[in-house]
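[step 3/7] inverse_fold.run input=structure_tokens len=460
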């Protein structure tokens, strides 16, 4: 994207923050019409998928799409014929290319996926710009006060991201791309792994002293406990919990522990900034750049104020890999009420994506937390694993459900899983855990049709 075009997109996004609902919806309608027309012309997949839908039809007349559908027809979905599934599979399999642009142009994010198979999502320059701007327009105004500005300056604008590495995941790969492409990024952005023992993570953050802390909600709650008992001593201006739901009580705990601004971010690899929290604690959906449709199990619209079975999103910024009425799998609730902050962007709530934090006892008798995304990623990174679920069935027992990719040997994959899990737990000082294989493969939840990754069957 040319600098003038980037500036135009950025300026419009900021102007929309103070727009009326009618003005916001007008932006959405215009971009939606342009996206539908473009997808039907330029994507072979959508041209066929919408063959029976008359031009100009209401969005609800367009059949939804799923991740598995888009991955199966990947070469026909993308609108740049230079992009092929075979070549992009090779690209994302190479960890040395994390943070590089595919074909020198396109950011590429992958996801292990709570709905089953991994997904690959290519971003164009507009989508990359929007992923930054939509978060900034809600968060930056909160930094205007004397205390936040003072902390930002004192901590030299350092940003710490706590996210799983080892692949082209949106958080880690996006951060690495910014580090590669800007002097600011190289100096002031750092990735921290939730797989690290909590004491090691605390020590590293004490040394780094971030001004902004972004990452997994479950990890932040544990860090807040460390701040309260004196093990952690940082003074961020801003904390951005994301990737997992977080309660208002937990957010207040973060505010009290770190004496800072806290803003929840709700997004997905497919569209990063779906909603951002305002100063009144409400998540506002960024509907000028994404269409959000809460629906029931039959993809029918539901009433406002009712939790959905799933949500369909239409990404209005990304034309290289269009996502139109894409089944994201999350349960959300949309509300009609206007927020006291004055914004006309609709309020929404999210539920259903958080795994359980498992508390184990070390060999020395100390209780330590093991975070769900860290634990599941250990298994997902084993070659040959297609999907997995990890269940705590007894105080010292983890049961692993898994299925394998075509050509992989289940017995060999299981031995690798068992070895990697035991090694991971030992790094946390936990050695008296039995890891056993389940008799059944991973199961979808009956209501949501999603795959939970980590949970405990104990009353903890």
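[step 3/7] decode complete -> sequence:
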């Amino acid at each position: 994207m040319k600098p003038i075009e980037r500036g135009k997109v950025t300026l419009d996004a900021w102007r929309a923050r103070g727009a009326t609902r009618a003005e916001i919806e007008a932006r959405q309608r215009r971009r939606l019409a342009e996206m539908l027309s473009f997808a039907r012309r330029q994507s072979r997949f959508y041209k066929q998928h919408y063959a029976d839908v008359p031009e100009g039809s209401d969005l609800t007349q367009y059949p939804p799409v799923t991740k598995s559908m888009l991955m199966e027809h990947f070469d026909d979905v993308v609108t740049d014929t230079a992009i092929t599934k075979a070549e992009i599979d090779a690209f994302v399999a190479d960890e040395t290319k994390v943070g590089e642009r595919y074909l020198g142009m396109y950011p590429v994010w992958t996801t292990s996926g709570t709905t089953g198979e991994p997904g690959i999502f290519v971003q164009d320059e507009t989508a990359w710009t929007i992923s930054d701007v939509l978060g900034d327009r809600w968060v930056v105004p909160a930094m205007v006060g004397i205390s936040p500005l003072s902390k930002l300056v004192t901590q030299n604008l350092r940003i710490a991201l706590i996210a799983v590495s080892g692949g082209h995941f949106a958080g880690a790969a996006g951060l690495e791309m910014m580090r590669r492409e800007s002097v600011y990024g190289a100096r002031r952005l750092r990735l921290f792994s939730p797989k690290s023992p909590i004491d090691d993570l605390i020590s590293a953050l004490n040394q780094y002293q971030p001004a902004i802390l972004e990452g997994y909600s479950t990890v932040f709650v544990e860090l807040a406990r460390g701040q309260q008992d004196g093990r952690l001593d940082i003074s961020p201006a801003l904390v951005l919990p994301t990737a997992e739901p977080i309660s208002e009580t937990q957010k207040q705990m973060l505010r009290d522990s770190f004496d800072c601004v806290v803003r929840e971010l709700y997004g997905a690899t497919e569209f990063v900034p779906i909603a951002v929290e305002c100063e009144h604690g409400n998540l506002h959906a960024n509907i000028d750049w994404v269409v959000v449709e809460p629906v029931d199990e039959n993809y029918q619209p539901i009433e406002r104020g009712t939790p959905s079975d799933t949500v369909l999103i239409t990404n209005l910024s990304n034309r290289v890999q269009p996502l139109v009425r894409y089944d994201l799998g999350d349960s959300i609730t949309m509300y009609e009420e206007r927020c006291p902050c004055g914004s006309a962007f609709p309020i929404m709530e999210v539920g259903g994506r958080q795994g359980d934090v498992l508390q184990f006892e070390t060999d020395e008798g100390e209780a330590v937390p093991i975070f769900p995304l860290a634990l599941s990623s250990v298994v997902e990174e084993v070659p040959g694993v297609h999907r997995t679920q990890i269940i705590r069935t007894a105080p010292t027992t983890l049961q692993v459900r898994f299925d394998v990719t075509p050509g992989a040997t289940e017995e060999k994959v299981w031995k690798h899983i068992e070895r990697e899990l035991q090694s991971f737990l030992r790094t946390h000082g936990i050695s008296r855990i039995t890891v056993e294989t389940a008799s059944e493969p991973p199961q979808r939840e009956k209501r949501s049709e999603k795959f939970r990754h980590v949970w405990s069957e104990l009353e903890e």
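[step 4/7] annotate
The chain has a mean pLDDT of 90.
The longest helix spans residues 21-42.
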